[in-house]
Every structure is written in structure tokens, then in C-alpha cells.
Amino acid sequence: MTLLTKTNLTSKLSDRERIAHIKADYWIPYKRAKEVLQTLEDLMDHPKTTRMPALLLCARTSNGKSHLLQKFFDAYRPVVTPETENLTIPVVYVQAPPKPVEKAFFVNILEALNAPYRVSSNEIALRYQVFKILRAVGTRILIIDEIHHILAGAYLNQRAFLNEIKGLANDLQIVIVGAGIRDALSAINTDRQISNRFEPAILPTWKLDGDYFRLLSSFEAMLPLHESSNLTKEDIAIKILGMSGGTIGEISTIIKKAAIMAIHTGKEHIDILY
Length: 274
Hints:
It comes from Mucilaginibacter yixingensis. Helices cover 49% and strands 12% of the residues. It is α/β, with parallel strands linked by helices. The strands form two sheets. It has a five-stranded parallel β-sheet, with helices on both faces. Strands 2-3 form a two-stranded antiparallel ribbon. α7 links the parallel β5 (141-145) and β6. It is elongated. The model is unreliable at 1-5 (pLDDT under 50).
């Protein structure tokens, strides 16, 4: 697929196509995200040991956590070896169930693996199936997003759920990557043995500094507008930061809405943010 430059986008696409481009998801490789991705790459290459490392990615809602994990996951899609037709699934990405229920957790993993299962199967049978498949497909990293959901259960349920996660790491010798809001730290600390394994990785909210201005420049470079918006101009940058609460998701939403308005009104640049 040919990548369109900004010049090509503004000159060759219709207004409707430019708006569709603005609304689409695209990746902006900012500094902290690249650091976390490098950590994930390093974990991917970690040899199997009796005590596997783990990572806990924490961020406020709408601050890029899931987008970052999806970026990493997309780089390690399932692969079929032509000679043997063996399927390899190096990274499995699942959501933690709304409550710490082991059966629901195993079902989520099987769904992510696109593996058939019996709804009537008990927790033990599903656990056996999950372990068997993950071994067979050579999984190296299991990502558990929204891991703070553990806190929605009673203390004993939380401990039992964490024991299952610990069992996956120990028995399969795979890396566990948990992700969630700040409450995820409290969720993992329910079990001291497992919390000691998790290295915390925080995605902080944005502030008025060089990284933030570089982020705005990257956003502007992606906008198919005919005129420059000068998003790094101090008054505009401060306005966006204040409206967004410092999260990248809200920063993106504000800029995209303003850019679409600029096309609709014919201004072709972002000048006023409401």
C-alpha cells in the first residue's frame, strides 16, 4: 500500500475523503510510547526461566494504553510456517473479565485464540485447554488489559484470580503484561509474590514541555489541511492541554474535531478551539 504524504492528501483527496482520513486511527510514535515498546520487545526475547519477568502498564483512561498495546500486538500476528503448517501465536491479547472469575478469564483467552470450546465446560477443563493451546502455539507474551477489574471481586476471588495468572507464568514460562488504570497497581499488590515480578511502566499525562510540543507537531503533520494550523503556538497549545486534561486520547479528539470543522467551514486551518 502506498503511503500518502500530507501534500498528496490535501491535493488529491476530496473533502469527504480528507475527513475520513482525519477520523481514522493512526500511530504517533512519541518518546514514552517508544520506550515502553522497546521494553516489550526486550521481554519478547527473554529466555524461559523459572521466574519470568512481568510488566504492569498503567495510564489514565484515554491516555494511549490500549493503543500502544495494540501497536505491539499488531507486530506479532499469528504466523503459519509453510513447510510444516504449524501455527505460531507469539502474543495473545485479552481483556480481563469484568469480575475476577477464572472461568470467564479462560474463555476470554480461548476467544482471543479463536479456539472452539464448550460453554458448559468447567473451569478445570477450560484451564487445561488454554494451557495446552498456549504451549502448542509457542506463546511468549500474554497481555491482560483492564487488569484493574480484579478489584471488582471479593478478596478471596482476587487472590484466586492472581494465582491463575501466576500459574500461567510459572507453568508455561511466559511473560505476563498487565495493563489498566492506576488501580491496577492495587489489584496486583493483592498478592505480594506476584506483585514483586511486575515492573511498573507509567504513561504520564501530558504537560507543557518539549515532548508535548513535538506531539502537537506530529498531529499537525497528519492533518490534510491546505493551511498550517500552528498548533505549537503557545496559546493554542495551552488551550488544547487545558481542554484535554492532558490525555493523548482527548488531545487527539480535540484536534480531529477542530480539523474537521476547518474543512467544513472552508478555513482550512485550526485557529479557534471551543
